Amino acid sequence: MKTRMQQRSSLAQPTFTMNDLPHRSLGFAKKIGETWSDCRGGDCKAYQRRFLYVGAFGAYHTARAYWLLHENNSFNDCGILARNLLERIINSAFAAKSPTHAVELISHELNDKIRRLKLLDHGPNASPELTGSIADHEKHLHSFLTLINKSRAPDWSYCRRAEEAGMLGFYRSGYFNLSRYAHAGYEVARPEKHNQQSNTTDFIALVAPIMTVAQCHGVDCLDCAADKCLVHDEVKGILRACSLATLGNESGNME
Questions:
Q1: CA 105, CA 117: separation in Å to the nearest integer?
Q2: Which among 64, 102, 133, 154 is most buried, taking Cβ atoms within 10 Å?
Q3: Residue 87 in contact with residue 129, Cβ under 8 Å?
Q4: Comparing C-alpha atoms, which of 177, 244, 209 is closest to residue 57?
Q5: Helix crossing, 75-95 with 199-218: angle to 10°?
Q6: How far is CA 39 from CA 36, 97, 105, in A?
Q7: Would you kindly state where each structural domain of the chain is located, as residue ranges?
Q8: Based on the number of CB atoms within 10 Å of its own CB, is 115 exposed (0-12), middle (13-18) or buried (19 or more)?
C-alpha cells in the first residue's frame, strides 16, 4: 500500500501531451465537481460555496465549448470564450478568500444587473414584468447586504478583484493578450493574424476548469489548509503540465 508521500509524489508530476490535456482538464473538473452538494444554509459561507460551484460549473461548460470551436479552427471565437474564462478564474479566486468576499461580489454583480435593468425600464421597453423583476432583485440585494452589514454594494472592478486575490499579474497578462475581445463582439484582426490559434487562450481554457473547481473544493477541505490534500497536489501537477505544453514554462507566465 502506498504511503501518503508516495501518493503525493506520483500525483504531483503527471506526464500529459497537448492532445491529452483538454480531456484531462475537463475530466478532472467533472470528477471533483460531481462530489459537491448544497448545504441549504442562508449564511455567507453557504452563498460562498454556491457561488464557487456555479463558477466552476460555468467554467467547465465554457471550456467544453472552447475546445469544440478549437477543433473546428474557429480561433477568433475561442478568444471570446477565453476572456470569459479568465474572468471566471479571477472571480473564483476572489470569492474563495472568505465568505464575506463572496457575498460582496454577489452583491456587486446583482447591483450592476439592477442598474442595467433600470436602463431598460422606461419608454417602449417598460413593462410590469420588468418592474417586478427589478423589485425582486432589489429584495435579494437587500438580503445580501444585510448579511455583510453594508448599506450599499461594494464596487469591485475586475482589476481590484484580481489585486485582492493576489492575481493581478496573471490577470493583466491574460487581459493584455485578450484586450481586443469584448463581451458582445470583437475586432477583426489584421489579415495576416486573422483566426490564428493562440497558446495563451489555450492555456486559459485548460486551466480555468481546474482552478475554479479547485477553489470550490478548497473551501470545504481541511487538508488543503494543512497542505496535505492529494487533490491540491494533483491540481498543481496538471497546471504545470498545461503551462509547459502551451506557454513553454511551468509557471503560467503569459507574458
A1: 18
A2: 102
A3: no
A4: 209
A5: 30
A6: 10, 19, 20
A7: 1-36+51-92+165-255
A8: exposed
Q: What is the pLDDT of residues 187-243, one digit of tens each?
A: 555 666 677 889 999 999 999 999 999 999 999 988 887 778 899 889 999 999 999
Contact status, residue 108 vs residue 183, Cβ threshold 8 Å: no
Interatomic CA distance for residues 212 and 86, integer angstroms: 10
This prediction's pTM: 0.87
Q: SS3 helix, strand, coil % of the chain, rounded to 5?
A: 70, 0, 30
Distance CA 184, CA 76 (A): 13
Alpha-carbon span 71 to 135, nearest angstrom: 44
CA atoms within 13 A on the CB side of 6: 3
